[in-house]
Design goal:
215 residues; alpha+beta; 5-stranded antiparallel β-sheet; 8 helices; 46% helix
């Protein structure tokens, strides 16, 4: 194997690619760059591989982390989401927050005609999407594992925004109200505090006066 000859071909090609990326002002990190190069190498050599970076690219960028899929009984993705939420409803105690949240989310999806979920990660062709049952602003979620095939064939698309900002959750999720404790001032006699071994400010000042007088 003539390693030096291979280096003479490959290194300039990579340098040219990096230069082009920088000239186009494209942002990147080393991990993503290595993943893309690895996928390109495997693809060129006809080696079985996963295009995980392509999926990541569809959901990267500000306001692009959310996906949508149509509510349709012929849509395998919707069936999977519906089953996940229905299972949680059946397992949760009736009247509990989880039971109510998952029921509400199912109703919202069916009323809107599509479901929404947040992209989590992708590895070896399996995409993890998060169903945020308590609202898009909170991180509590139910994870669903879906083949990247459904992203590539168009069953899953980018939502092009955040559910809360798009008005998809209006009137359903209420702000968490914090009940402040009421402080009750009860007058306490100095003699009562003395019995408990607690000194008041007056006690301390009186002790200082006695000490100064003795000096």
């Amino acid at each position: 194997m003539d390693i030096q000859s291979l280096r003479k071909i490959i290194f300039p090609a990579i340098n040219k690619a990096i230069t082009q990326i920088e000239e186009d002002n494209l942002s990147y990190n080393i991990t993503t760059l290595r993943s893309i190069m690895n996928e390109a190498l495997n693809g060129s050599l006809n080696i079985n591989h996963y295009n995980d970076t392509e999926i990541k690219g569809l959901f990267s960028g500000r306001g692009r982390a959310w996906a949508r899929t149509d509510v349709d009984e012929n849509n395998d993705v919707w069936i999977k989401i519906k089953e996940a939420l229905t299972c949680e409803v059946q397992l949760a105690e009736e009247g509990s927050k989880m039971h109510e949240a998952c029921t509400n989310l199912l109703d919202m999806f069916e009323n809107a005609g599509f479901a929404w979920m947040r992209f989590g990660r992708v590895k070896k062709g399996i995409v993890v999407f998060n169903l945020r049952m308590f609202g898009s602003k909170l991180e509590d979620n139910i994870k669903t594992y879906i083949s990247d095939h459904y992203v590539k064939n168009g069953n899953i698309q980018n939502l092009e925004g955040v559910p809360h900002n798009l008005g998809l959750e209006n009137g359903v999720y209420e702000s968490i109200k914090i009940q402040k404790k009421k402080i009750i001032n009860i007058p306490v006699e100095s003699s009562d505090l003395s019995l408990l071994g607690i000194q008041t400010l007056d006690d301390i000042l009186n002790e200082e006066k006695i000490v100064n007088a003795e000096i």
